[in-house]
Request: fold
Amino acid sequence: MATKFFEKNRKERLDEIVKFAKLTSEERQILEENGGIGFDQADKMVENAIGTFSFPLGIATNFFVNDKEYLVPMVIEEPSVIAAASKAAKIAKINGGFRMKNEESYSIGQIQLVNIRDKDAMQNVLSHSKEILDLANTKSSTLSKMGKGAKELSCKQIITPSGAMLIVELLIDVGDAMGANVTNTMCEGISSLVEKITGGKALLRILSNYSTRRIVSGSAIFDKDEVGGEQIVDNIILAFEFADNDQYRAVTHNKGILNGIIAAANSTGQDTRAIEAAAHAYAAKSGKYRSLTQWSKDKNGNLVGKIELPLSVGIVGGIINVHPTAKVCAKILKVASASELACVIAAVGLAQNFSAIRALASEGIQKGHMKLHARNIAAAAGATPEQIDAIASKMVQEGKISINRARELVGS
Ligand code: MEV
Reply:
């Protein structure tokens, strides 16, 4: 499926996607018409709307995650990212693709209690857990009906310059939703009861985006010959160790991982700010900011990549139910649950990291990047679709990639 996808023209790519995901003619039309949201929808979504803003949507190919084939829609403005993910996934496929897991979808809600005078406040909250959870669950009949909803309650004390505070945390199984709204509703809904139990004052009542109960993890094996041989495998491990032991490198290394994660998450309209905030906090969980991936060799000398991070995504509620292209992208992904979506997105992150550090640890990233950059320059200079590749190759060959040179070539 989807061999040489990049060599096809737009119509052929769409034909393949339509067949793969069994898209209806209306869904195909949404893709053909760059079917984002109209102004009326935008005007309802944000304040002071004046228009909409579009981004490229591409498809990463070759992804096998837990033995299932995926074509992954990615929304990103940066050249090379989609090609890099597809190439990495192709190598991972040789050894069975990505093995990923995501075992729970618990959202965390926090209630900040101040002015606590009762030394037994924490114990009192815990002994009223059932009553508090029952009240929280009255706030979402949908989750309750599915046997999901608020499941656990915990308490911690924090000491601040303004004194001690009690933080009550509500753990909510949000199933296939991202769950921010229901979490906030439940936190607000139980705060009066918690105030009564503790004698304190409830101040903030809000979801924590540090979604440590939505961890996704997994691995893939990259064949040493396809990677480029033993030396490159060793260099990739050295590149990982650089990132894992130096924050300046780790931030860039994790940015590369997020290139894949955010692009894949964007296509289904996820809250990517929440994903990024949680990913960076998780990278610093040991007290030092480190790599979100780990790289080593197996006994055959093949490269083994692992990834682990919190990933809060949903397939019900939010933009995915509103944005026409996000809906079509969800259909292309064929994911049946938020957990499956998290697994695919994290696999893309691992693939992206592989390609970035493979390039960096061998020929460098500029060679491939400049080729794509040259295509953009050629297009900007007015090259026709038939001229673009030839002009881009010529500029790369000459080592002269500029709008002026592209204009000369367009005119010649
Ligand atoms: C560029 O968007 C991402 C990289 O800088 C990531 C990395 O350095 O690992 C290539």
Summary: The first strand starts at residue 57 and ends at 65. The pocket of (R)-mevalonate is lined by residues 78, 252-253, 255-256, 259, 356-357, 360, 365 (CB under 6 Å). The beta strands are 57-65, 68-75, 99-102, 106-114, 149-160, 163-173, 201-208, 215-222, 293-297, 303-310.
